[in-house]
Amino acid sequence: MRLYYYGYLLSILLGSNFGETIKGKIGEVYIRKIDYSNSFTIEFSKEQLSPHQPARVHAHKIYTSDDADNEDPVFVVIRQERDVVSWELPYLSENGQLYNFASRSTCPYENDSLVVIVSTPSVQGVKIEVHVGQQTFYKVPLNSAIRTHAAPTAPRYFRFDFPQGVDNVLLEVTSPNDTCASLSLFKSCSIHQLVEFSTHRDSYRQTITRNGGMMINRKMFVKGYFYIGFVVFSDDQQCLDDFIQPDLNGSIILDSVRVKNLTLSFRDISHVRSSVIVMATCGFFLILALLGTIAWAIYSRCCKEKELHVNEENNTDDLLQPKEEELNGDAGDSTATAGPSNIQNETVISPGKHILDHSLPIGQKSVMQKLSDKIKNGEKLYLSDLMWYDSKELTDPKSFYSWILVAIIIYNGIPVIYMVIVYQLNIHKTGDMDWCYYNFYCSHPLMFLSDFNHVASNIGYGFLGLIFIFIVKQRHNNFLSGPLRYHYLGVPQQFDLFYTMGWALFAECICSSCYHVCPNRFNFQIDTCFMYVIAVMCGIKLYQKRHPCGAMDAKNAFFFLAILNVISWLGELLGNYLITWIVFSLLYLCVNIFCCVHVYYSGCWKFRKPTKTLFREISANNWCIKYKDRFTYTTIIFGLNFILLVFGLVVRPDDFASHLLAILIANLFVCTVVYLVVKSTVEGNRQCCCCNCLFCCRLKPVILLVISVCFWVPAVYFFGLNSSAWEETPAVSRTFNKHCKLLDFFDYHDLWHLLSSFGLFFYFWFLLIIDDDLKETLRSKIQVIL
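The chain above was modelled as a monomer; its predicted structure follows.
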């Protein structure tokens, strides 16, 4: 029987018309009863048709009581000289639902007639209603909006012509309801009959609910015009993740359902030149680097002159060489008094030459023993109590933080770059715009990149990372060529972590740019992983300030980061399950307790049998708190983490990776505040450096921190104004799309990139000089904070 239907339809297409033929009139409704021997043909002359208003054919199969059980189809054929469109009634949608009506628009070819043929193989006859009208809006004007509607059986299409001098336009589509639909761009009109088939390669397509759109360049359509098609799906399966397939209506749908109202508009954005904006952005950072270099040179020259003046009055470098017996002395014999001339009395422990019983170095064992005695007696701890390496060992980059990070950047960067390029090329090859989660209202294409502005806004990370590396290098050189006493006074100058922080900021530029080439749920937030690196390195550096020999080394730090990334990956993969959050919360609580106890005991608490050891220590002290100040700020840190733990367990955010990053940043912020508060209040931290300049010693770090916070506050605000949501479906993500906010080129997330890069840069600089006021202070007078 099916072969008979196909043969019957073929005879119609070949022109074997039989039955009634009438001269049609636009706007008139025709109702006929037809059967297998009596088709119905309507002919429209060229004079009745307009090239600016395409004809729209609507066919409706009418069911009566006599033919309610008639399942024979009705074939509707629209024949033009250059195109043929056909469908059958009842119309079968993608999900298997049947409709007894459907409509199509024809291509408005010039000097072309139109023939509508309606036929059926039914013996008993079928009643059909045909109406041919004209589409009021066809060519969409620039900077103007038109309103239309579409349905599963009634797709719509329009045409846009690039005006003279306009090369880039923004297509924007909005809808008041969440009905799932498809927006498609075609190169030729004859393809409009395939608008339902979303796999066609000669188009650009995206699923939409309330919002949709994209930026279009004239080069994408060499003819200077293109067609916009809308198809409403029979269900929302292609737009929702948690979609539940509804039961199909067994009967044929007789009335219009799932009608989607749409507003379509085009806006000229030719004035926005991506290359010009990028050049301006690079120029801004180059000027910033030049001004910063000049300011740094003036500042260094000023301080150097004052420092030389002080050196002339206190030329004691010949007394600063430690004696042989002092190099082999114990760590706790510090009897130094204030003043540079007495620094030879400051205890300096040489690195352990042997490992005793596979345990600690000899110098470290002595220091740890006396440190443990001090903690048991409740004595104050000073920087000299936590040093078992000499100055050369501390300043020598033996930990290889930066080398490991550079290797990770290269090893991880190559496959990442390859992956995102493949994603991007796949978009241009298939035309499927659902691959990447762009902010389509502000997604400027350039060359093969579909979202160039989000790549360009990451320039700040790269520029400022390299500038910071230059600043650290200059400071490192000045330290090595400076007075010898600075090797034995003040907080030890350890530069390897600072180099690592600069390279991590540069790596953020690369990884964030790669991620934004094609952001989606498959590339696992590769930029967030390097944000973890930055946060952890800053935290280690803050701890290393007062624990120069006891901070986490490179291999342990990167092993911790590896575990952190595994947890983040598992959280993204299994974050919907409550058991995942329970296990993470328990692990988080244990780590939090361990870190607080470790900080309280300055690293002397034994991890073996931790509960028994801790209980014994507390009992021996009659349950008294020896270090009330340290207990206070460790309690604050623990309370903050407990609040974050409860928040995560109750709310269970969809973006687990960002939640983990928020935990790291919150801890870093609190530890920084604690460090500043304690530093400004404890005895021995109020001295100024050799420059005798309050601005250079105390005010400058505060200014840098204030500037960093001033950048971070709006950055976090803009980060919260999501322009896309990769954890949702592409259609739902487009409901968050927002227009460009800066120079018609950068959106909210671009502003996050720009502002956060400055916030990180000034925070790094703050960490670099925070203890410059202690350059002339004996280490036996510098109290331990964290």
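Confidence is low (pLDDT under 50) at residues 1-5, 312-360, 607-615, 683-695.
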